[in-house]
TrEMBL record:
Role noted for this protein: Catalyzes the interconversion of methylthioribose-1-phosphate (MTR-1-P) into methylthioribulose-1-phosphate (MTRu-1-P).
Positions marked as site (Transition state stabilizer): 163
Active site: 243
Catalytic activity of the protein: 5-(methylsulfanyl)-alpha-D-ribose 1-phosphate = 5-(methylsulfanyl)-D-ribulose 1-phosphate
Organism: Methylocapsa polymorpha
Protein name according to UniProt: Methylthioribose-1-phosphate isomerase
Amino acid sequence: MRIEGKAFTTIWLGDDAASIHVIDQTRLPHKFEIVTISNVAEAARAIADMQVRGAPLIGVTAAYGVALAMRADPSDGNLDKACAILAATRPTAVNLKWAIESTRRRLSGLPPNERGPVAYAHAAAIADEDVALCEAIGEHGLALIEAAAARKGGERVNILTHCNAGWLATVDWGTATAPIYKAHEKGVPLHVWVDETRPRNQGASLTAWELNQHGVPHTIVIDNAGGHLMQHGDVDLVIVGTDRTTASGDVCNKIGTYLKALAAKDNGVPFYVAAPSPSIDFTMDDGVAETPIETRSPQEITHITGRAADGRIETVCLVPLGSAAHNPAFDVTPARLVTGLITERGVIAASRDALARAFPDRAAKPQ
């Protein structure tokens, strides 16, 4: 996608053909900085500290992390160590495990001297596949937006999204934003309601930033405004991303997604989830009972960072000293509240049968 008119992906190989470069998402929207990752420890830290975030991008970064480890030491012991270090960074996004295990399987049968080049090639293939999956999701989701525009006689389509499932969360295009970008480029009149997405404000800081860079009309709203907007007919459809979708169609996404789904159901607003197949976990059935929900630092709630009037970036405390804070990072939306899953193979029902039909290879041999 574009940053000040220049094409970027979120992750790319350095000129030395060894290190990788990523956009430091903890610095946005106030600063655009590129971070160089040179070893597996730095890759793990970038994931854990959310310099890179979003389930698809986490997976790609982990694959490159294994490649960096194999370049330094391609032994069996170091392969196991690197995979363990990366797997421990963030528990909820299933793409992390998927990418690590895919890379491990690709390397395990190879002699050590071949592992480095093959690992880099495999990571690049995962990255390229992610772009293709997101663009396909964009094409299938475009039809939903065009249908909404047709129902409104060509009037502006209002789309609500939550968190950042944009190109910053993937390699390019994004998941939930891919249909939006496709529609915008095709000239479909649209407008995006961007949830701020407390406590890290990925909507206000990241989604709004990338929509602004791409020229897509949007408005930032507080997280609790979604139901109000729906009650007044100001939302035509909701499109969100997913960090893990179960075999039965339950969807784990950024905390607050469940409340948006409840409001959408109550107001008859279609609620869609952009779900690339690597985010589908066919080993899991009950999302609420089984999904590991990451609990992050209370300081993400109690403090906030922003730009002061004089341009300095400052962090301030928002709450009374001594007040406790609890920070679950994700929640689960049951399949019954999901209108449809926008996958690379089409828009399907959020159900076991539909997922098994769409992805028979994955459903038959869950990884």
